[in-house]
What we know:
Elements: H1 3-14, H2 20-27, H3 31-43, E1 63-71, H4 76-88, E2 92-97, E3 104-110, H5 113-126, E4 131-138
Antiparallel strand pairs: 1-3, 1-4, 2-3
Helix pairs in contact: 2-3
Amino acid sequence: MDEIDQTILDLLQENADQPAKRIADRVGLSPSAVERRIARLKQSGVIQKIAAVIDPKAVGRGLTVLVELDIQNEHRHTLDAFQTWAVKAPEVQACWYVTGDMDYVLQLAVRDLDEYNAFIDRMMREQQGLVRKYKSLIALKVVK
């Protein structure tokens, strides 16, 4: 991967919907050369997928909450069970298995605190005995 590929990636992360011509103008290549590079980046796995970034407020989920979770034990089957559950939970926008004091960090998009509380109640009921403790962080403003 060279500097041009990195610039293409930066431009795609700003707006993946922009035409190859616009990217080509910015990197000094032809649109077909840019399209070939993008195809190669996809094929090699550098670009895993192109996704729409949705404004949570526009779809009625204006409250973002980060939840740090401590799991009872870190046996493989326990981690797999929790991860399977988190992937299926519609409120969970991202789930990271992390180092440090906590085991997971979840990013939730919910309508309001009532929906957040319902999520916590459901998680603690459905994952009974799995989650030792949790800590919530309410996002006040998206900076980046």
